[in-house]
Design goal:
With 432 residues, the protein is α+β, with helices and mostly antiparallel strands. Helix content is 32%, strand content 18%. The strands form 3 sheets. Strands 1-11-12-13-10-9-2-3-4 form a 9-stranded mixed sheet, sandwiched between helices. Strands 5-6 form a two-stranded antiparallel ribbon. It binds zinc ion.
Length: 432
């Protein structure tokens, strides 16, 4: 996802609500006055900003993942819809970073990075009206997802990472995959047997792929898949790419490399609704690494949404070079403005806790950082590897965009759809 432009409010002062002169309520009028007031908002929050400790050495090796997608639809009936998805994993070392001019990176230097240190994956999902090998759309999408995760140009590594997570292979203990709803009979399958790729439903004997465990079929119809399936595939694939890097070093016992690496993801460390099946294995792995004393640095950066809006307001009152890790209570009261709920924030869907960072007066970031097992943030020490992550930020800030990080900007460049054929050309294929 690209960084948005500056978000300064326009100077428009004309009253937007003045014509509603029928409103007599004092309360409503007070609200209107507030709405139209352009005085800088004074916001008092409980945010307790702490100083970033720059005595830590910055991490020298940085990986960043990002993805993009584009859905095209034929103009003439019978309508067909295809969604093109691209994801990328980019590696940057300190040498490459030093070569880059943060104000105006030289296109050749960027080209070298992309050629030597970026890998990407591209696939296409038929969302509507496309028949593949006599299968209906539903089964075709299930099979394409399975085969795409097994992308041979990436040596099936993202799929191996899915297996590694699903069966928690780092433990060495045989266990089933997480349980999931059968794509044929909707009964709950108790999980595929240890380390298998395919299997049968214990209720209807229907054929199952390990990738069915992720749950894409839960939002698909027999002939139509919504665009959100393509977004979900992109997010799952980004997550698998991120953990492919981590798994690689873990399996080779290159713990020193892990200790010196930062894994960055565009967007929060979240997998929503049914796609959250992988959240528990991810948390279990982080906890395992923590117990083993191997520090792993993972961070997501979100660029839109309620947390970003909130930080825009409170960052004004925060000192440069500081951070604040909000508790669930703060998030509920100050960001979500919600009443207390039975389930704690992000309990099922997040594998990282939120962090607000104001690096300098131009860069403030909403990040999420794993904690291992689920915890409500009590102190910044709950966030795994926080000190080193924070100490690395100043060296990877973009000077081209406010609130932007160079590795994510570059990953975005590789993943961006501009490197696809143009949308018009994609349409030609969709019309066949
Ligand atoms: Zn079944």
């Amino acid at each position: 996802m690209p960084y948005k432009g500056g978000s300064r409010l326009s100077g428009e002062r004309a009253s937007k609500l003045g014509h509603l002169d029928i409103i007599q309520s004092d309360l409503v009028n007070e609200l209107i006055d507030q709405f139209e007031s352009y005085d800088p908002e004074i916001v008092e929050t409980d945010a307790k900003w702490e100083k970033i400790d720059l005595s830590e050495e910055p991490l020298r090796l940085i990986f960043a993942v990002d993805g993009s997608k584009q859905t095209v639809r034929s103009d003439l009936p019978p309508y067909k819809e295809l969604s093109f998805i691209k994801t990328t994993l980019l590696r940057l070392d300190q040498y490459a970073l030093d070569k880059l001019d943060p104000d105006a990176p030289h296109p050749m230097a960027l080209r070298d990075i992309m050629a030597d240190a970026a890998m990407y994956h591209a696939t296409v999902l038929p969302l509507k009206g496309v028949r593949v090998k006599g299968k209906n759309n539903y089964d075709a999408v299930r099979q394409i997802i399975f085969e795409s995760l097994n992308d041979h140009s990436l040596n099936r590594e993202p799929y191996n990472t899915l297996k590694w997570l699903a069966y928690e292979l780092w433990t060495g203990q045989p266990k089933k995959s997480p349980s999931f709803s059968c794509p044929h009979c909707s009964e709950e399958v108790s999980g595929l047997p240890y380390n298998t790729d395919e299997g049968e439903c214990e209720h209807c004997n229907g054929h199952l792929f390990l990738s069915d465990m992720i749950g894409f079929h839960l939002e698909m119809g027999e002939d139509v898949a919504p665009d959100s399936v393509s977004t979900a595939y992109m997010l799952i694939h980004e997550t698998l790419l991120l953990f492919t890097g981590i798994r690689h070093f873990w399996e080779k016992k290159k713990y020193k490399v892990l200790n010196n690496a930062l894994f960055l993801k565009d967007g929060p460390l979240t997998l929503r609704s049914q796609y959250s099946k992988l959240v528990i294995p991810i948390r279990n792995f982080i906890e395992f690494a923590k117990v083993q004393g191997v520090e792993i640095h993972i961070a997501g950066q979100e660029k839109t949404g309620a947390f970003v809006d909130h930080l825009e307001i409170i960052a004004k009152y925060a000192p440069a070079g500081s951070f604040y890790a909000p508790s669930n209570d703060y998030i509920r009261k100050e960001v979500q403005h919600r009443p207390e709920r039975a389930e704690p924030y992000g309990f099922r869907t997040n594998y990282g806790n939120k962090l607000f960072v104001k690096v300098d007066n131009y860069h403030y970031l909403v990040m999420s950082i794993p904690t291992g097992n689920y915890v409500d943030t009590k102190s910044a020490a709950d966030l795994f590897g926080l000190k080193k992550i924070l100490a690395t930020l100043p060296s990877i800030l973009s000077h081209r965009h406010e609130c932007a990080l160079i590795p994510i900007e570059l990953a975005n460049g590789v993943a961006s759809l501009s490197s696809y054929p143009s949308a018009a050309i994609l349409k030609i294929f969709a019309d066949i």
